[in-house]
Amino acid sequence: MTLEQRISDYGYVLTAENYSEKPHKVSDPKSDLYTARIVNLMLPYIKESISESKFITIQEKLRAIVNECMKK
Questions:
Q1: How far apart are CA 64 and CA 15, in angstroms?
Q2: By the 8 A CB rule, do 35 and 71 touch?
Q3: What CA–CA distance (Å, rounded) separates 35 from 59?
Q4: What is the pLDDT of residue 61?
Q5: More confident position, 18 or 32
Q6: What is the distance, to the nearest Å, from the Cα of residue 38 to the centroid of all Cα atoms in its chain?
Q7: For residue range 36-69, what is the model confidence (pLDDT) as tens digits?
Q8: What is the C-alpha separation between 66 and 33, in angstroms, rounded?
Q9: 12-37 average pLDDT score
Q10: pTM for the full model?
Q11: According to a count of CB atoms within 10 Å of the terminal CB, is the N or C end of the chain lower?
Q12: Contact of 23 with 67, CB cutoff 8 Å
């Protein structure tokens, strides 16, 4: 399945956990949904030739921003 198919089917790309880093806090399912929606809005402006690793990095950084914004 290509990157574009994953995004159109699921709205985001699943990432593998990095076990060398400290464990991340469990994120709110709502923030994952908001992140997926924002990424979906950005898709027309992202070049098709972007590597999957760079796209995943963008998605992870955006998820961290959304999680910060949703903290109470």
A1: 14
A2: no
A3: 7
A4: 92
A5: 32
A6: 9
A7: 899 889 888 988 888 989 998 988 899 989 988 8
A8: 10
A9: 68
A10: 0.57
A11: C
A12: no
Amino acid at 46: I
Q: Please report, for residues 32, 35, 44, 47, the alpha-carbon distance to residue 29 in angstroms, rounded to integers and kept in the order given.
A: 5, 10, 25, 28
Per-residue DSSP letter, 41: H
Q: What is residue 31's predicted lDDT score, i.e. its pLDDT?
A: 82
Rounded to whole angstroms, how far apart are CA atoms 67 and 9?
23
Which amino acid belongs to residue 21?
E
Spatial distance between the Cα atoms of 36 and 29, rounded to a whole number of angstroms: 11
Give me the phi and psi of 69, to 5 degrees please.
-70, -25
Nearest to 24 by CA among 52, 57, 54, 63: 63
